[in-house]
Design goal:
This protein is of the alpha+beta class and 146 residues long. The protein has five helices and seven strands; from the N terminus they run H-E-H-E-E-H-E-E-H-E-E-H. The strands form three sheets. Strands 3-4-5 form a three-stranded mixed β-sheet. Strands 1-2 form a two-stranded antiparallel sheet.
Length: 146
Amino acid sequence: MPVNGKRKGKAGELELARKLREYGYEVRRSVQYNGKEEEGQPDLLGLPGIHVECKRTEKLSIYDAIGQAKRDSQGKDELPAVFHRRNHHEWLVILPLDDFMKIYSEYEAGVYGLNNPKLKKGGTYMLVDGKMVKYPFENERKTENE
């Protein structure tokens, strides 16, 4: 990688780390932490469960970038995510749909779980395929009564 590319990559990583610290996370560059670049390391450390691939470029090949994040996170308990920003634009996060749904179902369970006004009082609910479902399930209830 040319020197200017490395410098811009470092600047992008530092910028993103500062932005994520604004949200309360102790984020730092992984190179800063161990002093050297290693293959397969996330660009930033400090977002538990997320493999951060930082791209600060005008043109991004999304599938190449997410492919790199997937390869680098393979065998680790981390979701691959590409954080991207062009000049004069906001930061974006790109991740595979299956991984987004894992995050969203956890969010939905937390937000809509016990305090969901749509859930009937006095029941037990379980998260099934990303939805809160009353337990016992309707088909099990019929079987028990027969």
